[in-house]
Request: fold
Amino acid sequence: MKEENLTPAKSSLRIGKPQLKLLEQLCNACGVSGAEGEVRSIVLEQLKPSLGKSPLWDKNPSVDVMGNLIAHIPAKEQPSVKVMLAAHLDEVGFMLTKDENEGFFRFDVIGGIDKRLMVGKAVWVGKEHIAGVIGAKPIHLASEGELERSIAVEDLRIDVSPENKSKVNVGDRATFAAPFQQLGDSLRAKALDDRLGVAALIELLKQSYPHLELFGAFTVQEEIGLRGAAAAAYACSPQVAIVLDCTPAYDLPHWEVDRGKVEETVYYNTQLGKGAAIYVADGGMISDPRLVRHFIQIAEEQGIPYQIRQAGGGGTDGGAIHLQHEGIPTIAVSVPARYLHTPYSLARISDWQSVLSLVHAALMKLTPELLTEER
Amino acid sequence: MKNTLSFLKQLINTAGLSGYEASARRLVEEAWRPLTDELRVSRLGSLYGLKRGCGSSSQQKTPSVLLAAHIDAIGLMVTTQVGEFLHVIKIGGLDPRVLPGQAVVVHGREEIPGLLVQPPDHLLPSRLKNQPVPIEYLLVDTGLSERALRKLVRTGDVISFAQAPLEMGEMYIAGHSLDDRAAVAALTEMLQLLQRRLHYWDVWTVATVQEEETMSGARTAAFELQPTIAVAIDVTFAKGGNDGSQYRLFPLGEGITIGWGANIHPLIHKQLKECAEEWEIPYKVEPIPHRSGTDAWAMQTARAGIPTAIIGIPLRYMHTVVEMVSLKDIQRASRLLAEWITQLEVDVMEKLAWDEG
Reply:
């Protein structure tokens, strides 16, 4: 244990001020599915100084036709394992679809956002983050029963004010205007799904794993069907894939108000503060059991907090990756966070740390033998 | 106008919920101190500023006008703690549909940032699936542990919205509590204009408390200051992007409103209108058939009755955290009040006769 703590690789993987600063920058950037450029350029900036040349392409990292950013680090020792690490750049949001003058725009939703969460919120529109609001009819003017009905997206508008009406255009993307803030040991921000994964992947790519050929794939269009990851996995063609994502924590009180009491919440998916969430099965993939065993064993050995994400719907880039080529053994590890796909989500720094430590430790101990075990 | 923008941003960046207006009042006090001859805080917490008229030296009692703009804001209050979450109730009129997903500040033993959330459908009664979630099911998550939270927060603590002000170009601003701090900014601008004017009448600028709840600030100010005339400056409905077929709305940034109805003395209404015409200040007449929902409603029946009027500043999305207002309209309100006050003669009251008289 003592020796472990002294290894430089481990100590440099602590989440401190620089990591939080980078996460803040990533979360405050806007990268709605299909328009990930602003986030991609931050990642590029981060990777450039440390990344060496790749025999696979002229510029490392490379950006493919879909917009995936892929960093390649060749192995320095043999035998080696070819591993793909994936985190998605994109986030849910909106697109302006019709200009109705005076600064009012109709919009459509990109990715899964509960329609009840849009009204009365501020948004950032376009590359310049022009301020806009999704207003609500004043409560004073509501008609009988109106407050009991949810509002359809068709009845909402993004309003950028009469003055800024020509500073934005139909086709511009928008996100909730929800600036990053640290709340004690927790983080409150938009797009923690999956900037937590993106920031963790950046840290991992700065480490040294001589026994691994590593691909760091920052994927696009996860929120609209895992589309970037499919192409990236084809290009990388790894032996093993590890997906770093963010998964919902539904660890809230369960109200049975009719019976006047709070029931135990059984379907929580994951719980905040309980550590890295290891996927066993989700809506799109059954994780490779050898990898699940490996991750759990490492976590137990090294005392890294972990939890098993409850099996059920939802999914990660793994759903597309494991289907590529002849099949790619894949596992997903997530940071649990509450309120994903709403203006602000909330996560614990300690859980993020657990994901980072666990994936790092699992990579250190990843050998070709693991894949020769019976699945 | 630059000053007004930065003052207003400061004002809407502070909490000052109904009954707890101190933080907002302190900012107004600072702004009004150099602009008034007297400044004091009422028993209920309203701020009274007096700018003496030059009629003050005459033998008879100087007539006075009271201009009321409310400083209180709508928000929430803690009802109970369950685990690491807080349950809340609203202060003032709030559409529960705009609440989930808002950043808030819990004013406990210290200021604690938090998030107002709607639990996932499967943890709510099934009848609420896809329906607006009533406020009793919403929770505040501060990211703190149950124990830490218990030390810092108790039932009855107020919760304010944390939406930062949004500058929308140079002429528009959006945020919470612009109802009615936009009018407080207008009164401040008016006081600046009056510095270079001669006026007979005493002018009381009053930042009233608790308008959103009981109007107690305006009611007691009108009693205590006994003004000759009282005017409420409040926001009114501007046409927004999703108001549907609502007709009772005014365009944003194209002029103020002058109220008309039972809550308004017809002759003061006429004076204000004529003044706006004379100085080419764009305005519209706002029909207010019965209850005005402004401080004027409470002031009109103070003591033996006080002649009242209402000036409206159009505002989009009232009682949300993204209310939007035009700085031009704020400037128009301040200008109209300054011109009208400058023109007020000593014997105006004698002319305030009803037609039949």
